Amino acid sequence: MKFHDIAVLIWDFDGTLYKPNPALFAAVRQAEYRTIMAHTGWTKEHTIEAFEKLYKKVYSSATETVARIVGIPTEDAAVEMENYFDRRDFLKRDDRLIELFQKLKSYRHIILANGVIARHKETLKVLGLPAKTFELMVTSEVVGKTKPHPEGFQYILNYTKLPSKEHLMIGDRDLVDLAPARALGIKTCLVWSDKPSAHADITLPTIYDLSSCLPL
Ligand SMILES: [Mg+2]
Question: How many domains are contained in the chain?
Answer without folding.
Answer: 2
